[in-house]
């Protein structure tokens, strides 16, 4: 799926991503968050797929949040390179280890959660939910600042989306506020002209004395 997606071929990418989701569901009883994010990204490439893409991104965030809530007694989140069922098994076993590996696992979990929130924000922007998108991208930015090096491609992508969404929000607000008074005046003039035309038509139809 990733190969075809990078090649700009969304149809076979979607086919393989859906097949992966089906196999994960059969084998583990749940779909891995990475597969959900890939499904969201593939759907996003189609002209009318942003609603489905948004649904998959929401599912990915929720899956990661469930994993985060199932932490081990030592407070470490299971490593996010596992599938979700493997995470749950690790949490159930209460796996413990040295402090440094635990911190590394927690940072990796936060990094993946940052990517999931970023993709969710992008899909929210596509469906014109800009306020929600702005909130989600700031969550992604905060998580990324704590877990991803600034020069990493994920961090750069999140930073760029923060700026684009900020610009989009400002532009959209400016257009709404600047055009609203003009539209109101234009509509009022149209109503006056329509009323005058109706009055003139009625006057013309009335018999003269």
Which key terms come to mind for this protein?
209 residues, mainly alpha
Description:
This protein is mostly helical and 209 residues long. The chain is 79% helix and 0% strand. The longest helix has 53 residues, at 153-205. It starts with a helix and ends with a helix.
Question: Concise description?
Answer:
The protein has eight helices and no strands.
**Number of DSSP-assigned strands:** 0
H-E order: HHHHHHHH
Individual helix count: 8
Oligomerization state: single chain
Low-confidence stretches: 71-88, 90-98, 174-180
Give the % helix. Answer: over 70%
Q: Label the structural class.
A: mainly alpha
| Strand residue percentage | under 5%
Mean pLDDT, nearest integer? 75
Whole-angstrom Rg: 26 Å
How would a textbook summarize the main sheet?
A: none
Shape: elongated
Question: How is this fold's topology laid out?
Answer:
Elements: H1 2-6, H2 10-28, H3 33-44, H4 50-69, H5 84-93, H6 99-126, H7 130-147, H8 153-205
